Amino acid sequence: MDTLLETRPRSLDELAEVIRDALAKAEKAGMEWNIIAGEAMVEAHDYHFRKNLHGFWAWVERNFDYQRTQATRIMNYARPEALRREAVKRRDELDQIRDLKEKIINVGYKTLASKLHPDVKGGSRHAMTLLNAARDGLKRHI
Asked: Looking at the structure, do residues 21 and 56 belong to the same domain, yes or no?
């Protein structure tokens, strides 16, 4: 058998059918079909639209009613390194959000403590006890 025929890229129509089928199955069966759809999208991109990214996105939207972000997510399922990078990026973002939450709590605490402390006019031990309880409760949720 001719090896050129075995390795030829599939046509856009063939790829579109594979992707449609995989996306439909992914809605019911999950990740395995997202990976198949992603692999076919990557193949379409790499072999048919390498120098025409605008054409690729137009083809995706026309054939699958997907926006760029959705299609990129599907394509990333076919790229384990992209998934790993995405997971690390998301973990870093969550760490940053947690740190910001803690800073917000601390700034609010210090601001209120300067007004509610028993050594300040109008402050009291009871007010500080309530403030400490509120801060501790908020910190448990971050």
From this structure: yes
Phi, psi of 67 (to 5 degrees): -90, 170
Report which of 112, 98, 110 is spatially closest to residue 141, judged by C-alpha positions: 98
Dig out the tokens for 80 from the structure. Answer: 């384990």
Give the domain-ending residue among 63, 78, 93: 78
User: Are residues 74 and 34 in contact, defined by beta-carbon separation less than 8 angstroms?
Assistant: yes
| Helices and strands of the chain, counted as H and E runs | 7, 0
Convert the pLDDT of each residue in 70-81 to its tens digit. Answer: 888 888 888 776
What is the value of pTM for the model shown? Answer: 0.46
Q: What pLDDT, in 10s, does the model give residues 46-64?
A: 889 888 889 999 999 999 8
Distance CA 16, CA 74 (A): 14
**What angle, rounded to 10 degrees, do the helices at 31-48 and 12-29 form?**
160
Please say which residue of 78, 97, 125 terminates a domain: 78
